[in-house]
Amino acid sequence: MTLALNRNNPPRPGLRKRLARWARGPTLARDIAIVLAIKFVLLMALKYAFFNHPQAEHMSLPPEQVAQALLSASASHPSQGDQHAR
User: Fold this and answer.
1) Which residues contact 60 (CB under 8 A, 6 or more apart)?
2) pTM of the full structure
3) What are the tens digits of pLDDT across the range 1-59?
4) At CA 60, angle to CA 41 and CA 54, rounded to 5?
């Protein structure tokens, strides 16, 4: 009985053979995986290089002041825009 089941369902190839077949053939999935891995590594390198620590430790502002500066709309003066016509 066991022999009959094994004949109908051949054993799946091992992990090593599946990886070798995946790496050997030109597949879209492999290319996308490689590009995504490279992008992830580059993004992590940029994050650690530029965004991990502030540039100057003594120049920190309270979060409320930063939020106000970023979210406030500056009022523009209408008289400044038409000085070129005078």
Assistant:
1) 54
2) 0.43
3) 555 555 666 677 788 888 787 778 778 888 898 999 999 999 999 999 888 776 677 77
4) 20
Give the dihedral sign, CA 53/59/64/66: negative
Structure tokens that stand for 86 in this block: 């005078």
CA distances from 30 to 18, 20, 21, 41, 46 (A): 12, 12, 11, 17, 25
Tokens of 37: 């891995």
Q: What are the C-alpha distances in Å from 37 to residues 30, 31, 33? A: 11, 10, 6
